[in-house]
């Protein structure tokens, strides 16, 4: 068991290093007087998001996430699932570090809080789903009942993530923007 604990600690450290690497690269590029405003999520998007109906948001999110899950699923079938998950997490965390630095540079601390509000809680659900999918993809030789149960869990988690992104994130944005200086 201590070996698993050490593996987890080293993986978490590696992922934190990816966030830090994204932050450092963004700061280097920003210091070279490059305009990186394309990487920020401006506050004006919050009023636009709040003004769209739940049905429109739900359809849009369902369409986007279905395409993304299909691509990830195909990657899991073609490449080793553990490698796809690790490379994908590394890339996402690097990009997160890059974007959070740009948010801080252009919009200050309230921009960082706004970005975190836009990602919570649905991205935690999606990350859990991707991790579960990677873990289940390694168990190829199991019986059909376990595969069906895993598929049902993934589908349920997918729809919970979509509903939370469509509904809960709008509620969070409406209720918490006043507290972060918007």
TrEMBL record:
Protein origin, superkingdom: Bacteria
Entry's transmembrane regions: 12-30, 83-106, 112-133, 153-173
Protein name, entry field: Stage II sporulation protein M
Organism from which the protein derives: Coprococcus hominis (ex Arizal et al. 2022)
UniProt keywords, alphabetically: Membrane, Transmembrane, Transmembrane helix
């Amino acid at each position: 068991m201590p070996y698993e604990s050490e593996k987890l600690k080293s993986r978490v450290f590696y992922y934190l290093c990816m966030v830090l690497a994204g932050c450092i690269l963004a700061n280097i590029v920003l210091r070279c007087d490059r305009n990186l405003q394309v990487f920020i999520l401006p506050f004006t998007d919050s009023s636009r998001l709040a003004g769209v109906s739940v049905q429109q948001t739900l359809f849009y999110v369902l369409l986007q996430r279905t395409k993304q899950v299909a691509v990830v699923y195909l990657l899991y079938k073609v490449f080793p699932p553990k490698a796809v998950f690790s490379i994908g997490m590394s890339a996402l965390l690097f990009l997160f570090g890059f974007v959070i630095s740009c948010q801080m540079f252009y919009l200050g601390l309230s921009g960082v809080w706004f970005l975190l509000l836009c990602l919570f809680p649905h991205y935690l659900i999606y990350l859990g789903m991707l991790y579960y999918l990677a873990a289940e993809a390694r168990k190829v030789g199991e019986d059909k009942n376990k595969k069906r149960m895993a598929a049902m869990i993934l589908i349920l988690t997918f729809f919970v993530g979509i509903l939370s992104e469509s509904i809960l994130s709008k509620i969070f944005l409406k209720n918490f923007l006043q507290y972060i200086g918007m």
